[in-house]
Amino acid sequence: MSEERERADNDSPWKEILEAYFPQAMQFFFPQTAALINWERPHEFLDKEFQQIDREAELGRRYADKLVKVWQIQGEEIWLLIHVEIQAKSEDNFAQRMFSYNLRIFDKFAKPAISLAILCDADSTWRPNQYTYNYPDCGLHFRFGTVKLLDYQNRWTELENSDNPFATVVMAHLKTQQTTKQLGERKTWKFSLIRRLYEQGLQERDIRNLYRFIDWVMILPKGLEAEFWQEFKQFEQERTMSYITTGERIGYERGKEEGQQEQAQTLVLRLLQKRVGELPQEVRQQIQGLSLEQLEALGEALLDFSAIADLLNWLQTHQTVSAES
Predict the structure, then answer these.
(1) Which InterPro entries match (predicted)?
(2) Same domain for 63 and 30?
(3) Domain span at residue 276?
(4) Would you say 67 and 105 are in contact if contact means Cβ atoms under 8 Å apart?
C-alpha cells in the first residue's frame, strides 16, 4: 500500500474532526436529530462502551465510528451511533452491519441507539438505509439515517456560504475524489480551501483542526507539495498572520508521528527475525502496512511467538485490510 493511499484512507482525521466539532456535525448532516438535543448539556463519547460491542475494533477497518451520549431537550438521555463509511467501494452487508451494531448496543446496555451513517464512497447508486426481513409470522424493518457526501456536489454554493466546519470537510473530500488523476488541480483546490479558512476569520485552533483534515485527505506528490508550501508561505506573509505557521507546525507533528511509526517498524521487524527467522517479503510488507498502535500490539505479542505460524495467525486477525486499487 502506498503512503498516499494509506494516508488518504486513514480514519483518524474523521475521528478527530467528529470529536472536535460533534454538535456542528449533527447540525450539518442530521438537523432533525440535532433539533432533539439540548446542546447546552455536555455530550459524552462512549469509547469504552463501543469497544465492548465492536468485535471488529482491532481489524484495521476503514471506517470511523462514534457512540455518543447526549441529552434531549425534554431531559431524557439518548445514545447516538455515528458511523462514517470511508471505504472506496459499496458493501453488500452494510445495512446488516448497521442493524447488528444497533442490536448489540441494545442487548448489552438496554439503550435504543439512534444509528446514523455518513457515506463517503463514489457510487451514486449505493444508498443503504434499512435492514429488513419478512416471514409469514415474523418480520423486521430497521431504518437508519444516512447522508451521501456525493450529493453535495450539486450544493457547492451552499457549502461555500456555510460557516459550519463540516462544509469544509465535505468540500475537501469531494475535491479529493474529483482530482484523483488531476493532482495539479488538487493542489489549487487545497490552497483555495485553506485560504478560505483565513477569509472566514476563524480562530487559530479551528484553522489548525480543519487544516489537519484537509492536509490528510488532499495528498500531493512531493514536487507539488513543495510548490504548495511556497505559495502558502507567501500567502501568510501577505496577510501578516505571524501566529500561523500552522502548516509547518502540523507538518512537523505529522512527520514526528510518521518517524515514530518507521522506528517501530524497524524494531518489530528486527525482533521478529530473531524470534521466528527470516521473514518472506510479503509478510514484511504486511507488517509495514500496520498502524503505529498495531505495531505496538505486535511488539508485545511477538514475545510469545515460537514459529512463523504464530506471526501469520496474528496478522490474519490484526493486519490492516488492503485498500482496493
Answers:
(1) DUF4351
(2) yes
(3) 264-318
(4) yes
